[in-house]
């Protein structure tokens, strides 16, 4: 069992895939990099917070390295908090330098979206985004403002990386950004989207939960029958475009899985889910299914320790956060307002991206349940992209994170502007929990 932290295979694979330098993990402390942050008012009463770190590479100026925007899931999970301090930013949540930060390979732009997420806020409850279209149009305002004010980034390759629900947003944002660049309304060198364990076609996840869990001894025949039955109900609701009902049934499917698996962790099937933290009393929820869904999908992105960091030393450092705006304080409302959007698929948007020639990279953790790999393969088979048959004919290739090692860390297929990575021993998140670290061993 190797306990020395190593660069996650996900990081290595993706950075190399995008032609970014993986380099050697440099020894800290490195030179303090430049960072800037601000709010953009994207609509009346809707204020979006972003935080940019310029790449810090000992041999290269930031202008020779790409810019990566990171979008968290939930919806309601904060990129500036979770993605930054728990996953890929320069510091971890103890404010210690992270050896595996992506900052050596790219400048990083964290954005708290949809509005109300993280340090973003709305002034009127009617101002929350209610669907993907609104999430996308808000982000276009933010990106236009950002690239207009930071001309030094207009020409360097710009990638959108995402996780979970962030992947759905990344697809929508990517397509709109592509059009805006064509029309000349946004000046940027858009280079592609990377969709990590992404919520592209949730029904395909729900339909594969039963077979996946059954195949790894986490459901018995009875459990499989129960889960399959409710999955069919979700499918029926989605087919009828009854999306709010589909969301309720999705919550029911999760509860059935929890009961039948003795509490499997939806983010890594080799672990059990932590007992849920008590809900804050400020929540406006009246519908219990939404409370459960919020607990499962957003609360784990804003644990108490991260909240204390963001609402303590970080807000003090940033100085511009309004006094009465607390990090994560509106996330439950962000989630609740998107209720009618959760179960809508965006396979058609991925098709449009592919047709337009935008680079699309899909990657998925082997141990993820919420967005399991079988479900991802299922929606990919539904793509209408003319090159899909050629992609499908390819055999996958094994990849190793360390050239000296024979341990397979991933498989990949890539044809023209589409690539799919099967990431082994990884769950939903790029960076795994300590438990997964032990179980998956040597992942980092
Ligand atoms: C880095 O790039 C920026 C933008 O192109 C430029 O203004 C700056 O002088 C460069 N710095 C170094 C040390 O080369
Ligand atoms: C909008 O909300 C912020 C954060 O809660 C608050 O500080 C600000 O005063 C509000 N602005 C208006 C015009 O109500
Ligand atoms: C897409 O990726 C390929 C391979 O990495 C690269 O050669 C190409 O320039 C990329 N296309 C765009 C539009 O960035």
From TrEMBL:
EC number, as in UniProt: 3.4.16.-
InterPro entries membership: AB_hydrolase_fold, Peptidase_S10, Ser_caboxypep_ser_AS
Protein name: Carboxypeptidase
Organism, scientific name: Felis catus
Record-linked Pfam families: Peptidase_S10
Signal peptide (UniProt feature, chain positions): 1-23
UniProt enzyme class: hydrolase
Homology family: Belongs to the peptidase S10 family.
Keyword NAD: no
Superkingdom of source: Eukaryota
